[in-house]
Write a structure and sequence with these properties.
There is one protein chain. The protein has 386 residues and is an alpha/beta fold. It has 2 domains: 232 residues, Spore Coat Polysaccharide Biosynthesis Protein SpsA, Chain A, CATH 3.90.550.10; 130 residues, UDP N-Acetylglucosamine Acyltransferase, domain 1 (3 Solenoid), CATH 2.160.10. 20% of the residues lie in helices and 32% in strands. It has 7 helices and 32 strands. The strands form 8 sheets. It has an 8-stranded mixed β-sheet, covered by helices on one side. The chain starts with a strand and ends with a helix. 39% of the residues are buried.
Length: 386
């Protein structure tokens, strides 16, 4: 069976991570989120998968290649052009990406699934496809019920008593929401859906295609399912996803590595004197990381491979990406460290280079800088103030 993963977006709401990592490759404890989607599709018999790519397309293609290492077949549809020797992404929109593939050569010849490439899901796709076919639908949206106080963060789907879609509300005010069922970005389509998409223009599934289906009275339905769905479309969502994995709240994602003490998981060959550090789980620490004496780590916290926590450093409820060196004595509370960026859990980022504070967070592959005690105090105050 055939499927498509939408992977062409720039991921602007997950910056600064997506400056160098495309959204489908954002790691959930070192495993890209799109890899989880491939596993789900394969489990339910979807083994022919098209992926539209644009922003940092070469990164996605280099990692997944033709899919054989993941038990599936993958084809890529690049949206963009080459200009002065560089790939320039020009995404066609989620629906425009479907149209481009079908116009190149008809690929979608039976019921197919479309997934957004930025969510962890544990959904019985087989059951959803059966429901879709029983309804005789041309398109089905998988929805999920959320608490009413959360509806303003999502696209709301409004249906009649027969589950037929009547309208949509994009991030409505709580008091104006006509439903608490939200669009999860999981769709079941018939090939005829492509006929509703104009060629050669940017066209969106949610914003353009779906309103047209409602307007024309097509057999367009929504099914509300109770399943695990963790969106990582924004920095706070990503933060929540990592915390949820470490706390054991996402059943289909295991903490990698070896549990060396209750709630403490590590990769290979850590350099650490366990008697001289204070670690409270749940914590994951990647391979070839050095934890110096006096360091304190409080979970839920994830520290990537090849990092260095210098002496007397405190890391509390934080996510540290690979090759990060944290200077001696600093305290990181509720922070995400990615390259030169320090980000709070609301998504507000500090570029330590531009702030001339690049002796705080450095790359372990370069020589450590000298840190004056006065400068150390200044950066502590800055980080704790954000």
């Amino acid at each position: 069976m055939k499927a498509m993963i939408l992977a062409a977006g720039k991921g602007t709401r997950v910056r600064p991570i997506t400056h160098t990592i495309p959204k489908p490759l954002i790691p959930i404890l070192e495993k890209p989120v799109m890899e989880f989607l491939l596993e789900l599709l394969r489990k339910h018999g979807f083994n022919q998968i098209m992926v539209n790519v644009s922003h940092l397309a070469e990164e996605i293609e280099s990692y997944f290649r033709d899919g054989q290492s993941f038990g599936v077949q993958i084809g890529y549809s690049f949206e963009g052009r080459i200009e002065e020797g560089k790939l320039i992404g020009e995404a066609l929109g989620s629906a425009g990406g479907l149209k481009r593939i079908q116009d190149f050569n008809p690929f979608f010849d039976d019921t197919f699934v479309v997934l957004c490439g930025d969510a962890l899901i544990d959904l019985n796709l087989t059951e959803v496809v059966k429901w879709h076919k029983k309804k005789g639908a041309i398109a089905t949206v998988v929805t999920k019920s959320v608490p009413r106080e959360s509806v303003s963060s999502y696209g709301v789907v409004v249906t009649d008593d027969d589950d037929r879609i009547k309208s949509f509300q994009e991030k409505p005010f709580i008091e104006e929401a006509l439903s608490t069922n939200i669009n999860t970005g999981i769709y079941i389509f018939e090939p005829e859906i492509i006929d509703f998409i104009p060629p050669g223009v940017e066209y969106d599934i949610g914003g353009d295609l779906f309103p047209k289906l409602v307007e024309k009275g097509e057999p367009f339905y929504a099914t509300c399912m109770d399943f695990e769905w963790v969106d990582i479309g924004k920095v706070p969502d990503y933060w929540h996803a990592i915390r949820s994995v470490l706390l054991g709240e996402i059943k289909n994602v295991k903490i990698p590595g070896r549990e060396v003490a209750p709630g403490i998981y590590t990769g290979l060959n850590l350099a650490v004197n366990w008697d001289k550090v204070d670690i409270t789980g749940p914590v994951y620490i990647g391979a070839m990381t050095k934890i110096e004496d006096g360091a304190k780590i409080i979970g839920p916290t994830a520290i990537g491979p090849n990092c260095c926590l210098c002496k007397d450093t405190t890391v509390d409820n934080s996510v540290i990406f690979e090759y990060s060196r944290l200077a001696s004595g600093i305290q990181l509370v509720d922070k995400l460290v990615f390259g030169p960026y320090c980000v709070d859990k609301k998504g507000i980022a500090i570029d330590v280079r531009k702030a001339e504070l690049d002796w705080l967070i450095t790359d372990t592959r370069q020589s450590p800088p000298y840190l004056h005690p006065r400068e150390k105090q200044t950066i502590d105050e800055l980080l704790n103030g954000h």
